[in-house]
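Project standup — Tuesday

K.O.: blocked on the structure for the chain from last sprint. Re-posting the sequence here as requested.
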Amino acid sequence: MAFTNQRGRTQTSLAEINVTPLVDVMLVLLVIFMVTAPILQTGIEVNLPKTRETQVEQPKPKAVVLSIDKDGNVYLSTRSEAHAVNVNDLPKQLVQALGESGERKVYVRGDGETPYRIIAYVLDLAKQAGADVSLVTEPTLKKK
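H.V.: unblocked you, prediction finished:
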């Protein structure tokens, strides 16, 4: 685009894009995502039992996670939302959550102080819903 000044000379405008504000915005977004990403996967606070040999497998972003706290309360987590579930309604809600996520795998995070009978009951309900169940544990530090 050309402009004419007061003396009658033609001048062209600068067609350069100032990239500095764009870089500033992108860095702010990067920091925001770096801070919020770990928060989205934590969900319910559970003290996982420690095991020596574990296969390291992180739940996928669309994974369905069942958390059981030390009082025996069951929480169903899908994507970024977690809510308490009545054990009697668990199979129906689990089938619905598995259908929405497109996954068949369910990760069970049981507190180390939870009675085993409660965890076994929840595992049985998850299997009845047609889920492939994986138990989540925390690895112990190996001495070198």
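K.O.: great, moving the ticket to review. Residues 44-139 form a domain with the Nucleotidyltransferase; domain 5 fold (CATH 3.30.420.270). The helical segments are 20-42, 90-101, 116-128.
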